[in-house]
Design goal:
By secondary structure, the protein is mostly helical. The chain contains 5 helices and 3 strands; from the N terminus they run αβααββαα. Pfam families: HTH_17 (PF12728).
Length: about 90
């Protein structure tokens, strides 16, 4: 007589749930790579003045794309700038 685990169906479903949770966990990272911020949003995140962020963009210290008259900063570029925020605040 063949013995089967009565909990096997539950274990299989738990595996599927675990895979689903892992995929959901990775989705925000993918969305953040595509996210673009305005200068105002960047100034709030970096805790710098609007004009300071704008001048750093114009100097090339923060990478930004110009779309029409407006600048948009990619999330990855903003995080790079955030890692160097002390040098951005005091760089002249």
């Amino acid at each position: 007589m063949q013995t089967t685990n009565p909990f096997q169906t539950i274990l299989d479903e738990l595996g599927e749930v675990k895979d689903l949770l892992n995929s959901m966990k990775k989705e925000p990272e993918i969305e953040l790579k595509k996210k673009l911020y305005s200068i105002k949003e960047c100034s709030e995140i970096l805790k710098l003045d609007y004009q300071t962020v704008r001048s750093h963009i114009l100097k090339g210290n923060i990478k930004a794309e110009q779309i029409g008259r407006f600048y948009r900063i990619n999330h990855i570029d903003l995080m790079d700038a955030l890692n160097e925020v002390k040098s951005l605040k005091y760089r002249r």
